[in-house]
Amino acid sequence: MEYFAHSENEQGEKHSLSGHLQATARIAASFVSDANIKVIFKVAGFLHDLGKYQSEFQRYLKEGGQRGSVPHSFWGAGYARLNKMIEIAFAIDGHHKGIPNRAVLKADTEVFKRNEVSNYDSVIQSFLHDNKIIADDVILGSLTYQGLTQELFIRYLFSALTDADWLDTEGHFDFDKAKYRGGKFLNIAELQRRLEVELANKPKNGDINRLRNEARNLALQKTNLPCGFYSLNLPTGLGKTLISMAWALEHAKRNNLRHILIVLPYINIIDQTASELKRIFGEDCILEHHSGYNDNTETLIEDEYMLSPLDKMKRLACENWNYPVIVTTTVQFFESLFSNKPSKCRKIHNIAESVVIFDEVQSLPKEILLPTLNMLKNINLTMRTSFLFCTATQPAFEKRNDFDGIENICPLIESPIEIFEKTQRVNYFLMHELKPIDYDDLLNGVIGEQQSTLVIFNTKKATLEFHELAKKKQGQWDEHYHLSTLLCPMDRKRIIESIRRDLKEKHKILVSSTQLIEAGVDFDFPCVFRAIAPLEAIIQSAGRCNREGSLANRGRVYLFQLEDSGMPDKTYRACAEHVKSLIQEDLEKLYQHNLFQESYAHVVNLFIDPDNNN
């Protein structure tokens, strides 16, 4: 008897079941380089559609019927469970509906434990005979994974199996679509060449440029270390993006890694970072994936004909991140890792054997910090992945008493304090000793500076109210700008470009903004006003002031407390109040490089449960 996996395609061809199982096994195994893992992925691929050897399923393919009326996933899962391959059982049981929990897997496969499956021997023999294998080929010993490491491995296996199954099925039904899959690999030598061209064309003179080159050379000395956790702690404006890419490329070469992922917290940062990377490395090398760009949304049929071959390749690559360099958000990254849905989890296996760069890492939510770090630790352990934490404000992620953090984070620059001291570009001031002031007091203080000024608030309401008040002061500024998430992404992008142009052309402007301006937006204002906020927000705000160190004197950063000021949430308020008491006691503390890391550990211990949802 001839067995089929799927019905006829447009060419009238049926999909051979043995051909599908062998192709799925081969593709799944190709996703990993470790020989011990390859065999597990291969067996999962062979077993995933075992249930299609039921005569009822073959009749369903031939005669038709209600979709799902002859379930098949539980067969491969039950066979795996019977033979103590529990990880494979989870992956197969969920390869259509999503990863099950233990109770669901048990319920789905209990009939196998009770010997209540009809035609069991017949189906198994048909499977073995059709694939020309013996039972020992698809029975493995128990794996050594335990606890959360086992759960992460299940996700890894599930991702590879699901993606392999979809890819081979797509190849049967839609060859025109399948031909745009893959085709790109991490060509490290070529990317390094393009980066060298970029660096060669950058200016070498000046203290800032010399420090950038010094920092890059120090980081490159630590590329030959094994996969692990690393940090790059540098002041804003020191070129963390290019330094981290230079390190990641060489580290990937030394460790035979396959992808580089750049994970950022905010879409407005991604626009800037992705544009810069595309300019340097080429549009074809960078996959940008987030809710505002290339997202997995339905497209009008007529739009498909307007896409270039590269656009089609990128749109498909968003489904599984099969691309050399991926720029994405923390939301996309962690939702994929913690999801159980096949469509989201397809990406996970391409996070394996990669370098993951977290930019502005201080923005990871503190209330879920422990499960977040635990996931990263298990990825490093199970999937041979390196993580690089980049920021001007390095959070305390290390393991310590009462905090189960990361055992060892290797700094790429051992003594960043020297660089921070050489790049102190601002002076801090307290408005009215941080006693509450109203909008009029604040506006008078801003007008008194007589120069382009950035004012940053904690809420959209305060930002808009101050903007409307400032607009009434005709003639004080050449242009007023308002920035917040009240604006749609396209308008934010347009306004950010206008602000950059005005600053470059020395126009006198006033910008009222929420916190979205603080991380990754390379503005350079002579003066910044910042509503009292958590320490990382204050330091990041100061990074928008005298960024290039071009002022004859230091830039000026004013901290203020607004009357009846709102805060985004309780955690934010607690952290802001802690900073307020800290700097009222001694403003000079803001110039200490290690203040943030010490404060972060203190705040997590005192005010925040880093596993708030248990």
**Number of H/I helices:** 25
Global outline: elongated
Order of strands, widest sheet: 5-6-4-7-8-3-9
Cα separation of the termini: 53 Å
Strand residue percentage: 5-15%
Class of secondary structure makeup: alpha/beta
Rg on CA atoms, Å: 28 Å
The tally of strands reads 15
Largest sheet: 7 strands, parallel
Mean pLDDT: 90
Residue windows where pLDDT falls under 50 for at least 5 positions: 296-302
What share of the residues lie within helices?
40-55%
Question: How is this structure best described in words?
Answer:
With 614 residues, the protein is of the alpha/beta class. It is built from 25 helices and 15 strands.
Quick rundown:
This protein has 614 residues and is α/β, with parallel strands linked by helices. Helix content is 48%, strand content 11%. A seven-stranded parallel sheet has the order 5-6-4-7-8-3-9. The protein has a six-stranded parallel sheet with strand order 10-15-14-11-13-12, sandwiched between helices. Strands 1-2 form a two-stranded antiparallel sheet.
